[in-house]
Write a structure and sequence with these properties.
By secondary structure, the protein is of the alpha/beta class. About 35% of the residues lie in helices and about 20% in strands. Helix 7 packs across helix 8 and helix 9 runs antiparallel to helix 10. The protein is globular and about 50 Å long. The structure holds adenosine monophosphate. Adenosine monophosphate binds next to helix 2 and strand 5.
Length: about 300
């Protein structure tokens, strides 16, 4: 595994079909699931590690974002990646970028409404990574469902020659979606955070039993999250990230909440098979504690 710091070095050392896994570091099994998939599908697996200031709407959140580059290098090596692109600020943004990428319609609700400028920061850095690194495939998590919709749409609209691959949400043994931010949760907060998962699973059961009304599905999540500060629960169209009244097409039921000072998001993705039956993605559960804690 080689660590590179410039776009030129990354491109010159990547050969064959190149798969990119963009991350902000402080890696966990969610990130590594994308590395594993890329390793199966590509000749060169390139992981990027950059805490992108453009996408933080609150400066204190950027300052306190967890970082451990040495541990990340070890995890990426063990996961079998070939290259780690870890650029300095001055490489990514030698000048503040005057060009910004926006996908306005998809940024109106949910994360877009609660985190002004967030998706502009994400879309701009992802476009830059795709342009500078020129991967054939790029792997993202469905945990960030609205982000995935934004990225798919910008790639489509700008005819970027890359295939976007979305992977399932990796969860702790008890169901909590893995997030670098989980390390901030105290034991009591962690217990309350589990309401997000319980609510989404109650909604999953209801969907499988035939319930389609958005208010009812959102209500099931609200019922389980009464002791945390919920920002939104929204059933949204999977492609347009716009609220639906009824679950009648591929969608995700998204929730965001603050538990203490930590902001968490999670969602349940629902697709439909050829007979019109719902296919609910409950994510993948770990069988032991995450490497976020422990000796990792
Ligand atoms: P981040 O480092 O949080 O910006 O995330 C980098 C990538 O990992 C994004 O595509 C995320 O959607 C994805 N990701 C984050 N958490 C998870 C998870 N629990 N399961 C799967 N993918 C995830």
């Amino acid at each position: 595994m080689t660590v590179v710091g410039t776009f030129e070095d990354a491109r010159s050392q990547a050969a064959g079909l190149v798969g990119l896994v963009p991350t902000m570091g402080f890696l966990h099994e969610g990130h590594l699931s994308h590395v594993e998939r890329a390793r199966q599908e590509c000749d060169t697996v390139l992981v990027s590690l950059f805490v992108n200031p453009l996408q933080f709407d609150v400066p204190e959140d950027l300052d306190r974002y967890p970082r451990d580059p040495e541990r990340d290098v070890r995890l990426v090596t063990e996961a079998g990646a070939d290259l780690l692109f870890a650029p300095e600020q001055a490489v990514m943004y030698p000048q503040p970028p005057l060009t910004r990428v926006r996908v306005p319609l998809l940024e109106e609700e949910m994360e877009g409404a609660h985190r002004p400028g967030h998706f502009e920061g994400v879309a701009t850095v992802v476009t830059k990574l795709l342009g500078g690194l020129q991967p054939d495939r790029a792997y993202f998590g469905r945990k960030d469902a609205q982000q995935l919709a934004v990225i798919r749409r910008l790639v489509y609209d700008l005819s970027l020659p890359v295939q976007i691959v979305g992977g399932p949400t990796v969860r702790e043994e008890d169901g909590l979606a893995l997030s670098s931010r989980n390390v901030f949760l105290g034991p009591e907060e962690r217990e309350r955070a589990l309401g997000l998962f319980r609510g989404l699973m109650a909604a999953a059961d209801a969907v499988e039993q035939g319930r389609r009304d958005a208010d009812a599905l959102e209500g099931l999540v609200l019922d389980e999250t009464r002791d945390i500060d919920v920002e939104y629960v929204t059933l949204a169209d999977a492609d347009l990230a716009a609220r639906l009244d009824r679950l009648d097409r591929p969608a995700f039921l998204a929730v965001a909440a603050r538990v203490g000072s930590t902001r968490l998001i999670d969602n349940l993705a629902v697709d439909f098979d050829q007979s019109g039956n719902p296919v609910v993605d409950r994510g993948r559960r770990l069988t032991g504690p995450s490497i976020l804690y422990g000796e990792g």
